[in-house]
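Project standup — Tuesday

K.O.: blocked on the structure for the chain from last sprint. Re-posting the sequence here as requested.
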Amino acid sequence: MRTLAALKFLSLLFIINFSCNAEPESNLKDDFEGVTIADGLENPWGMTWLPDGKMLVTEKRGEILVIENDAFEGVKLKGVPEVYNRGQGGLLDIQAHPNYAENGWIYFSYAKPGKGGGSTAIMRAKLDGNQLVNKELIYESFPKTNSGVHFGSRIDFKEGYIFFSIGERGKMENAQSVGNPFGKIHRLYENGDLPEDNPFVKIPDAEHSIWSYGHRNPQGLQFHPETGNLWEHEHGPKGGDELNIVEKAKNYGWPEITYGIDYDGTIISNETEKEGMMQPEHYWDPSIAPCGMTFVSSDRYPSWKGDLLLGSLKFQYLCRVNLDDEGKYINEEKLLKGIGRVRHVAESPDGYIYVAVEGPGKIVKLVPKK
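H.V.: unblocked you, prediction finished:
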């Protein structure tokens, strides 16, 4: 088994050396500076903005921080639900509804505690001052499990629907079965109702919210602002982190196909391709442990416009993925090397890039130099 694992590892290195483009050097030190706007945090996970300019930041331990005028003065929202703060579980992503000014809804994903452990759940609520009110649980995954890994979970919206990701909770076989919610991208109406045109609604024993399956632990999810394609990235095992374009009803292969091996060096699958299973747009080996993502649409960063930014937890940098006009991977650039474990990156409504970092916990704003 060790020989087989070694052969597969060497073959993957061979593929990577011939398939990946060289990384250009970062020009951040010449054109931009990272300004810390909030520090002393623990594990900031998600970021969103309200029309009045306030920024809401989730702390995994179960807090929502209010940052105003690029400063955190200790204000936190009240009424946050109890979270299952274990391992990778806790309070996760947060997104204001695209039409927040009209409807006032804020959505967040979190690990919800209960009998049997924790689950990935989606709640929406409104604000009365700094108090969460009108809280509605619109989704919860079952069964609950005591596992502290692979909750997902990111949120995005399109045309009246909410899309969100759930990891396979550490049981890889979950990802290939549409009979459970784990290792999937899901789609619901914004109020939690089930769309009748979801791909598996006519299968009685299927989880009817599933949009795509065969995912491991997706911690990045966003629609491309120009093409409208849904992009996702997910953690592989030891190697094989993936960047995917998500399509309805498609199978993304985990664990039947993978470009990684298990953490102990054993083989998960001898296959990297299989008929009926999607190939990633790009994969990383060694794993960078990607988390959070945003497409750059702002004119404040003209040389990055149209590119994808995502965090590396493992190697502690911000990754800029350079895409061509058709949205294909060209190469990538490492920014903010050594800053800490980059948990999320997001673009504010006024066009600035913000980076959430853990170890040390802080929020950093990328400011173009004049």
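K.O.: great, moving the ticket to review. The radius of gyration is 20 Å. Helices lie at 2-19, 28-31, 100-103.
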